Amino acid sequence: MPHVIRSIFLAFAFCATPALALAAPINSACPMSGEAVPEGAPTIAFDGDTVGFCCAMCRTAFQRLGEDERRAAVAKVRTAGAPAMSPAPAAESPALIVNDTCPISDQPIGAEPPTLRVGAYSVAFCCGGCPAQFRAWDTDARNAYVAARAPRAPINEGCPVSGRPVAADAPTIAVGDEAVGFCCERCPPRFEAWDEDRRRAYVNEIMTQDAMNTACPVSGAEVDSSSPRLAHRGAVVAFKDEKAVNAWRVLGFEAQDARVGEMRRAKSAINAMCPIGEEAIDGRTFLTYKDNRIGFCCPGCDTAFDAWSEADKDAFVAKQKAD
Fold first, then answer.
1. 3-state class (DSSP) for residue 25
2. Domain limits, the chain
3. How far apart are CA 147 and CA 142, in angstroms?
4. Within 10 A of 225 (CB to CB), how many other CB atoms are there?
5. pLDDT tens sequence across 62-79
6. Nearest to 284 by CA among 275, 293, 297, 271
7. How far is CA 305 from the centre of its chain?
8. Do residues 166 and 182 touch, judged by C-beta distance below 8 A?
9. pTM for this one?
């Protein structure tokens, strides 16, 4: 009898084991990210098949899809392991990574994480499945995420301690949400010795200056004293709205410096609006007429203005000076 029981047990075990184990995945590429499905990957049973994923996050995302969406995603990777979506674009030049936790999973990022470029900066992810989900965010949401983490350019042009110009790669100290720059490494400790009220008064004096621009540098829309603003190396810049502020912050210092330079040059013109295109002048296209610097919205408008009669040019200059 013990022999019979043992034989029955072994036969049951032999027959039952294959039923307990999930079959190998039918796909070699993840239906969510297009990344390779690694050995031991997370899987799920769907329509009688075993579907593999590159990570647990993708498995969860797959489970949230509708029935038809899941079936379509599986169909794309069932044969030859074709990716479910286009692979991530080729990496651009290295850029500063602004985050240390994944924006999708909140998990820590690894030593060599997958990244996506947003403006001058990079966003890193915990695994290959998350970049596709981040790309699905709209532009404003991606900009807001990066802008909240990107470094801030110094608000000041001169060192608050020495009065000398702030260095291009200036050391900075945060005062509230703003960054104060210095001419050298010796000055930050002296600034930190100021009491908090004095530091905040210094920042407030810069931030309450009149904005240098009348048109948003991002959208071109008209701005006024109630518009959102920030300071950049001594210049106060106004924006149409917070979305435009975020778009500016992701540009990076080099592009911001160039645009502020254009706006500073534009301020030297007698006009803020192009006499031809009737749009804000671009800070790059100018013409000097009888010692008056006149700005234009684009190349071509200066030539058109030059073709005006002397009387019309004189009338335009007189009107700008009267205003």
1. coil
2. 2-78, 96-147, 172-267, 268-323
3. 9
4. 8
5. 877 877 788 888 888 875
6. 297
7. 38
8. yes
9. 0.60
